[in-house]
Structures are given as structure tokens and as C-alpha cells.
Design a protein that fits this description.
The protein is an alpha+beta fold. It has one domain (3-92). It has four helices and five strands. The protein has a three-stranded mixed beta sheet. The chain has a two-stranded antiparallel ribbon with strand order 4-5. A hairpin with a 2-residue loop joins strand 4 (101-105) and strand 5 (108-112). The longest helix has 13 residues, at 76-88.
């Protein structure tokens, strides 16, 4: 994710992303959001919902084409919020945020819209 969008999430939800300045031996949030900008709105909504649950994010990334959002401990509600957002990511283009679907290129998986997929396939 772009530095500007990363900073916006870190500053807007300091409790959720409290460990972003800690070393990787304590949290993987020091690597920021390991996904593209298209999921920014999804992450904003997820962060807003989770900030009310008083949890701390440990890692946020794309894996097997969809969002993975790891928290240390939390209530069943917090984990349900995360599960819902991860499922939503399967329909949102990771690059631009438009409606997308799972695409493949060799062994790689990515949720992309048609336009972003056409560009990705050219790499």
C-alpha cells in the first residue's frame, strides 16, 4: 500500500495499529500493509469496526489472492468482523478497488477487475 494511505490508517486508528513502530520480533505491522491500494476502503471500514473492539493488528497482507488480517487476541465479534472483511476482499480489485474476481497468472492468485487483470497478465 502507498505510504500516504498507510500513514492515514496508522494515524486514524492508533490503538489498532499501535505496534507499527515495533521490531518484527514483536509484530509484523512494521512492514505496513502488504497489499495494494484497492483495498484501502475495505481496510478503513474494517479498522473502524475493529477500533471499537480494542484489538491490536499483528499483520495485514494479501495471501492466496485475498486479504489476511491477523489480530493477537479478541472477542468472537472481532474475529467475525475480520472474517467478513477477508471474505469481501475476494470481490474487490486489490489494485483499484472496483469489483473484481480471482485471477491467476502461473501460480499467482490475485483479485482484480478486468482492466487491472489485463495489465497484470502482461508482466
Amino acid at each position: 500500500m502507498s505510504p500516504e494511505k498507510t500513514e492515514a490508517l496508522f494515524k486514524s486508528f492508533p490503538g489498532l495499529y499501535a505496534g507499527y513502530n515495533l521490531p518484527p520480533t514483536q509484530t509484523l505491522m512494521c512492514f505496513g500493509f502488504e497489499c495494494d491500494d484497492g483495498w484501502f476502503d475495505l481496510l478503513w471500514r474494517l479498522s473502524k469496526n475493529l477500533s471499537e473492539e480494542h484489538v491490536v493488528a499483528v499483520q495485514v497482507k494479501e495471501k492466496y489472492g485475498t486479504l489476511r488480517f491477523y489480530i493477537g487476541v479478541g472477542s468472537d465479534t472481532a474475529f467475525d468482523i475480520v472474517d467478513t472483511a477477508e471474505a469481501e476482499s475476494a470481490c474487490i480489485c486489490e489494485k483499484c478497488g472496483d469489483a473484481g474476481e480471482m485471477r491467476t497468472r502461473g501460480i499467482w492468485l490475485k483479485v482484480l477487475c478486468e482492466g487491472c487483470n489485463n495489465i497484470w497478465q502482461k508482466y
